[in-house]
Backbone:
């Protein structure tokens, strides 16, 4: 009897036995992007795992998830730093204020950081 090759075998794929089952040997290419995903990327990853399971699975199988999350992290970090600087400048929070009243400076900067975090979350992370 002649062996019939599947398309997978014709393209160089192999199988291995596990008990009574023949399992294909799928090997994903290694991820070449070594950029860190950071806090913003992890937040977005958690969001898409919870709310967009199909997108998450598709990116995992195409091996594009890490690069996507690293890009999101870079965009979010840039946006966050830009917002903090713009809001601090707009509200007159300077190094002079920091030297005169440290606690007031910390309070106002924490408020700005919280607002910037909310903006980044709403614009990039949880969409």
Residues:
């Amino acid at each position: 009897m002649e062996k019939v090759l599947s398309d997978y075998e014709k393209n160089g794929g192999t199988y291995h036995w596990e008990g009574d089952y023949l399992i294909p040997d799928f090997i994903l290419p290694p991820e070449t992007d070594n950029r860190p995903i950071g806090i913003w990327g992890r937040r977005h990853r958690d969001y898409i795992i919870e709310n967009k399971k199909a997108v998450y699975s598709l990116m995992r199988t195409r091996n594009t998830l890490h690069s996507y999350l690293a890009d999101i992290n870079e965009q979010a970090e840039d946006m966050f730093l830009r917002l903090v600087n713009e809001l601090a400048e707009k509200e007159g929070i300077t190094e002079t204020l920091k030297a005169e009243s440290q606690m007031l400076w910390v309070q106002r900067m924490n408020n700005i950081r919280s607002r910037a975090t909310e903006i980044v979350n709403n614009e990039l992370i949880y969409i």
In short: The helical segments are 7-10, 38-51, 53-62, 65-90, 95-100, 102-125.
